[in-house]
Specification:
There is one protein chain. It contains four helices and seven strands, in the order H-H-E-E-E-E-E-E-H-E-H. The strands form two sheets. A four-stranded mixed beta sheet has the order 1-4-5-7. The protein has a domain of about 90 residues: Head domain of nucleotide exchange factor GrpE (Nucleotide Exchange Factor Grpe, Chain A, domain 2). Helix 1 runs antiparallel to helix 2. It is about 55% helix and about 15% strand. It is of the alpha/beta class. It is elongated.
């Protein structure tokens, strides 16, 4: 009887040890599965982000190419002789230009062409500093329009900037400093090139 009881206790002990070992193995495999799943989800997320960034990059490159077409329209209209300004053919080309501009707007492209605003190095490229009654650091003329898409500057506007007689305190000090050739004003807007470099780093 005692032998049977001892055998039973030994069997119970052995079974308990086996169960404990199996529980440890199950926990080990579960942790491994969780890590693998987390790695897969991270990879899936990174891949989705890279695909999205590639689509954005491709779209922006295409839009940049189309902006040159707009530039040619602008240059052509600037040279139309006065006696032909109302010619039906010229009007037809104007309609094409308007339709083309509206198509870009539908894609989220916005124009940078404001004057009498503070110079912003994220949106403007100063090509000339001119004497003006406007406060220092003020955009006085847009030479070539710039464009923004989705918070990214596709191309800054080329502008003339006032040297001014005195700094208007209402303007950002850094804007006037840029107009005088000093440090650029920090901005949350990103140029197309900066966005491209960020994507490549990722």
């Amino acid at each position: 009887m005692s032998s049977a009881r001892g055998l039973s206790a030994s069997s119970v002990h052995g079974t308990g040890a086996a169960v404990h070992r199996l529980a440890q193995e199950a926990s080990h495999y579960l942790e491994g599965w969780k890590r693998a799943r987390a790695d897969y989800e991270n990879l899936h997320r990174r891949s989705a982000e890279e695909r999205r960034a590639a689509r954005v990059e491709g779209t922006q490159q295409a839009l940049l190419s189309l902006l040159h077409v707009i530039d040619h329209f602008d240059a052509a209209f600037a040279e139309v002789p006065a006696d032909l300004s109302s010619h039906p053919w010229v009007d037809g080309v104007r309609h094409i230009h308007k339709a083309f501009s509206q198509a870009l707007e539908a894609e989220g492209v916005q124009t940078i062409a404001d004057v009498h605003v503070a110079f912003d190095p994220s949106r403007h490229e100063a090509v000339e500093e001119v004497a003006s009654d406007a406060p220092a650091g003020t955009v006085t003329e847009v030479m070539t329009r710039g464009y923004v898409s989705g918070g990214t500057v596709l191309r800054p506007a080329k502008v003339k900037v006032s040297s001014g007689g005195s700094l208007d305190e209402s303007l950002a000090p850094a804007a006037a400093a840029v107009a005088r050739g000093n440090a650029a004003q920090p901005s949350t807007l990103k140029t197309h090139q900066e966005r491209k470099e960020e994507v490549e780093k990722e």
